[in-house]
Design brief:
Helix content is about 75%, strand content about 0%. By secondary structure, the chain is mainly alpha-helical. It has a single domain, classed as MetI-like fold, CATH 1.10.3720.10.
Length: about 280
């Protein structure tokens, strides 16, 4: 199945395609946020504390007079960065490990799966908290933790797909012709397991954004002056009775991004395998 055909089917999934456009726009905002925000997100304006939405401050201000709209826009950088870490780290670590375990099989595969099962038995957020605490409290360490937590899912998926493909005639033919294990995995296995890996990567965007927001809310992620939707929610929590909208704005941004990642993943599944539609 060609990439063009997959993209054509993906465009027919309207919600998924709109979600994809939303994520692309979010990425553009993340890249250019420092240049397009109307105010410095950390600039205090004590004259306009807890101001209501207006032409000057589209989403109002917080208890220190900081512009909420600027903070939400800058928070997209943290969300996109967390998503990148949650995709690249498992892609370069988890996928190769899963392919090797599935291709070699035997005792290596058994030991690998026992380790993966043990890691996956721990809830992702708890594991991310533990890794962040061990590495040190910072936004970058939180992002690394999110990437590490995502490794077992990618590794298990890659291993399962490899187990199915390694018995295919073209793989057996490559072995008979004298191709080495690394060449066989690179030439025949990786290209054929790529579609489900891409689906998992898109779904992992949701996990990354939600986990990063949770870690920042708990004080284990973004630290001032860094901006994160989670830290915005944490700071606004004590003011929920005075101005509940301070929580609503970053909450909506988080929810929309998480849903968009899930919709894109579902759309890719259908585009790659139309039998899954409905």
């Amino acid at each position: 199945m060609s990439i063009k055909e997959v993209f054509h089917r993906f465009k027919q999934e309207r919600i998924a395609f709109i979600s994809f456009i939303f994520l692309v726009m979010l990425s553009v905002v993340a890249i250019f946020a420092p240049f397009i925000v109307p105010y410095d997100p950390n600039q205090q304006d004590l004259v306009n504390v807890l101001a209501n939405p207006s032409l000057s401050h589209w989403l109002g201000t917080d208890n220190l007079g900081k512009d909420i709209f600027s903070q939400v826009m800058m928070g997209t950088r943290t969300a996109i960065q967390a998503s990148i870490f949650a995709i690249l780290i498992p892609l370069f670590i988890g996928v190769p490990l899963g392919i090797m375990a599935g291709y070699i099989g035997g005792l290596v595969d058994d030991i690998f799966m026992r380790i993966i099962d043990a890691i996956m038995a721990i809830p992702g957020i708890l594991l991310a908290l533990g890794i962040t605490a061990a590495l040190g409290i910072s936004l970058w360490n939180a992002m690394i933790a999110i990437g590490i937590v995502s490794i077992p899912q990618f590794a298990r998926l890659a291993r399962g797909q490899t187990l199915q493909i390694r018995t295919e005639p073209y793989v057996e033919a490559a072995k008979i012709s004298g191709a080495g294990p690394l060449w066989t995995m690179y030439k025949h296995i990786i290209p054929n397991i790529l579609p489900p890996i891409l689906v998992q990567a898109s779904v992992n965007i949701s996990f990354a954004v939600l986990t990063e927001t949770s870690l920042s809310f708990l004080g284990m992620g973004a630290q001032s002056p860094q901006i994160s939707w989670g830290s915005m929610i944490e700071q606004a929590y004590s003011l929920i009775n005075l101005n509940p909208w301070l929580i609503v704005y970053p909450g909506i941004a988080t929810a929309l991004t998480v849903m968009a990642g899930n919709f894109v993943g579902d759309g890719l599944r259908v585009a790659i395998d139309p039998k899954l539609k409905g």
